[in-house]
Amino acid sequence: MSRRSEVIKSYAVPVKAPKDLIDAYLEVKRKALEAVIAYVSYSKGKARLRLKAEERREIRSELLKDWPYASHYIDSAINSVIGLVKGWIKLYNRGKAKRPPEITRRMVYIKSTLFRIKENKLIIRIVARRRYLEVDLSRFDYLPRDYDSIGGLLLTDDRLYITFKRSSEPKEVRGWSAFDVNEANVTEARDGFGVIRYDLRELYHIHRVYEEKRRRMQALRRTHPKRSRRLMEKYGRRERNRARDFLHKLTTGIVRELAALNYGIILEDLSGIKERTARRGRASRRIRRRLSKWDARTLQSMLAYKARWLSLPVRFVNPAYSSRTCPVCSAPLKAYRGRLMRCEGCGLIIDRDEAAALNLRMRGARGSPERGGSTEMCPREAYVHK
Ligand SMILES: [Zn+2]
Question: How far is the centre of ligand 1, averaged over its atoms, from the C-alpha of 361 (Å)?
Fold first, then answer.
């Protein structure tokens, strides 16, 4: 069984996109949708798409008639429309489709046949042999250099989303590091280094600032509903971007150290995320819980894909009772004082986050760190950031 897998990283770079192409693409996608949807048939309340290859070719040549741009855009428009209609049919057949599908996003999917890389410049074909959009990747120092290939691109009015691919195979490591994430801090149990703490107060502060902004927005909602909604969306975007920047810095630093040590990463399997007991604070409980969940997941996935990018193995373990089990003798821990827990078996007094990180470390790779373990890997989708 090969454990080789493809790791992807997605980045956005600012561009001034050709507006005419984006307009035309939106229009042609709408036409394609109209054409494809004519081949949806209904019987006994179920929808089905019957589109033969030659009918598809007909749609294609019809759309190509007054299309001045490279013809690949038409193929990508038809493909994406077929995907959209198929997705809609699934919903419809389950009784979940509220409205017919619509094309609203000003976004062009650019297949790999439409661009090439030359001396670190991305050259995107707009009109065959005549017009190109050139993006100099070397201008953006945050972009990875150690990729194998570039996948599809997404172009919006002001941004180009680039997906970098790298095939990686987890290598043998010399040790492991386990991470326990909660809303106030990240606690790491690193072989040979003991417990390391990372403060998340800055992240908490970012959320508080925007919480405050949102609250002030409440008044505006009654008098200017449209403007308030637009501002809310803008604040939401900025808040996520700032939080993401913070998390990127933190995780890049951690993974760089682990790569130098040649250590693997052990993370909590959050697929059945446990509700962390939130600490008291002024921000509303609901929003705080939602954000801390988002933060925790984002942080975890950043650690995971950055580690995989560098071929470090990543393991996910069940976090159940990790902060309520003694890492020395496995007896139950009872609340002692503040964040401290006391072991009923051996009397050990330990911080609950430290206990959790140490337990995760043991669950992730049993035996001596040198020998590693044989816990199976749990493949996860790479985290994509924009
Ligand atoms: Zn104990």
Answer: 16
- Which region holds residue 73: left if phi is over 0, alpha if psi is between -120 and 50, else beta? alpha
**Three-state SS annotation for 271-300:** HHCCCCCCCCCCCCHHHHHHHHHHHHHHHH
Handedness of CA 137, 141, 142, 145 (dihedral sign): positive
- Report every protein residue that has its C-beta within 5 angstroms of ion ligand 1: 326, 328-329, 331, 343, 345-346, 348
User: Tokens representing 244?
Assistant: 């993401």
Would you say residue 354 has pLDDT above 80? yes
Quote the pLDDT of residue 81.
Answer: 95
- Measured in whole angstroms, the distance separating CA 176 from the mean position of its chain's CA atoms is 24
Q: How far is the CA of 14 from the centre of ligand 1 (A)?
A: 54
Query: Which whole-number Å values give the CA distances from 93 to 47, 98, 247, 267, in the listed order?
Result: 6, 11, 40, 38
* Average pLDDT, integer, range 193-221: 88
The Å distance, Cα 337 to ligand 1 centre, comes to 17
Q: Report the predicted TM-score, pTM, of the whole model to 2 decimal places.
A: 0.74
CA–CA separation, 26 and 17 (whole Å) = 14
Domains along the chain with CATH numbers = 5-16+109-168 (no CATH), 27-105 (no CATH), 175-200+243-364 (3.30.420)
On the question of pLDDT at 381 being above 50, the answer is no
The Å distance, Cα 171 to ligand 1 centre, comes to 34
pLDDT in tens, 56-71: 999 999 999 989 999 9
176 CA distance to ligand 1 middle (Å): 22
User: What's the chain's average pLDDT?
Assistant: 87
| Residues 334-354, mean pLDDT to the nearest whole number | 94
Strands 263-268 and 314-317: parallel
Neighbours of 380 (CB within 10 A): 16
The pLDDT value recorded for residue 98 is 79
Cα separation, 171 vs 308, whole angstroms: 10
